[in-house]
């Protein structure tokens, strides 16, 4: 509604203008909102920022968007109320200008998405969060009709790339691959082994998004990769802990195959990724201090596997792993790296401290970590057929040139349809010989006072966007089809470790006394462990401190790093003076 028709006094006019400025701030947040959640087209990877770390920017922009929108919408409704125009304006769909009812729809939709994304709801009811977040389509369409095409162009780049990124992920994940094998651990954790293209390399601590149609055709969940592409050329492994309905369903489906005659054949999954850091950043440190809690151990499994196969000249000299769990059964999650822990052939200077917080002693009576893991029970199930070892392996995201070509094709298509449809449906202005302004549209003459309805250019943007994204999806499908049919190295059964041959419990005894420690009934005292770790270092040392676990654990590790003396002399037994530099990194195992 024009300000002049509201008959506002001075303070009301100023307040109304402030409300309008808050709307512009919400628009700025929306312009940046979708960039952090891009996966295949992520710009944060150019800055070496992981996808999991960039999610926090999406949360910040989303919170800012809702706050500014609430102030903008609430203040506007307040002005309408005190001027007795609210019933007149709130439900009216204006022919030209801003559509206020669309703004109300956008505000309510955005608020609903924000509430269901709060950690208290998202972690306990992920399905509610997941399905509610798909209301973003209604939110963006309502915003377009409310703000108009001119304001929408400011936020269009992020929306455009997000739509194309979504299409790319659909194209990548439309092919189903079959799980080769599964390993069920007694701690209600499950390891899935998937086939991958041997040319696909990924950095440790990477993750994938997984969909299992047998459980749900629509739900996608992120899982850390526990394998290393330097070691496992043809397979990729993930581990999930049963802490929700979806993961429990996966565990039960696989477990049923071992307890009944009805065997699951060709357990099909869809995969997005892998996504992760652009480089192996942890190799630049002289030493590593790793802290994990529960299922947070999964990123470190891939890191330790990578370190075990690296040249010792380029790897950290010492590695301290602190692993905190609730029960002894949770220690079974260390089985994938049991050969690294107890086999000296890997030549990895690794020391492990385990803290079991809720139990005093294991039920099997074993006192050492090696004895406990040797008695652990693992059910290994072979799910793949002969064809599954080379059929539709995980290929990973495409290269930069491929993505740049696709973006260029889609942008040119969008601009072409936008210009063409605008020229056809929106009349153009020109002057006749008498100097009278006329509008020509579809062969009919109109006066200059007549305006095109505001929904016409809005619909043109939507139609052009849908056509461009569709053509981009077709181009991506064709390009991927051509790449898939190129000759790729095939793997055979002999090149893949079969589940029958992966006997986790066959641990060879080592001649030295086991250095790994188990502490029961207590939590790790990080400062004491770091002090002990520091005593074994000589000279200047850079230490990479990586943590993955609950938020309280991350806060404790960050607090320790802030308190610890950094970049200045620390007494070393009264003889030497050494320098330490602690570099804190937080890894996420859930998004």
UniProtKB/TrEMBL annotation:
CDD domains: NOX_Duox_like_FAD_NADP. Keywords: Membrane, Oxidoreductase, Transmembrane, Transmembrane helix. PROSITE patterns: FAD_FR (PS51384). One of its GO terms (cellular component) is plasma membrane. The chain crosses the membrane at residues 20-38, 59-79, 99-116, 128-145, 151-168, 400-426, 459-481. It is a multi-pass membrane protein. Pfam families: FAD_binding_8, Ferric_reduct, NAD_binding_6. One of its GO terms (molecular function) is ferric-chelate reductase activity. Residues 163-281 form the FAD-binding FR-type domain. It is found in: Membrane. InterPro entries: FAD-bd_8, FAD-bd_FR_type, Fe3_Rdtase_TM_dom, Fe_red_NAD-bd_6, RBOH/FRE. PANTHER family: FERRIC REDUCTION OXIDASE 8, MITOCHONDRIAL (PTHR11972:SF155), NADPH OXIDASE (PTHR11972). This is Ferric reductase NAD binding domain. It comes from Arabidopsis thaliana x Arabidopsis arenosa.
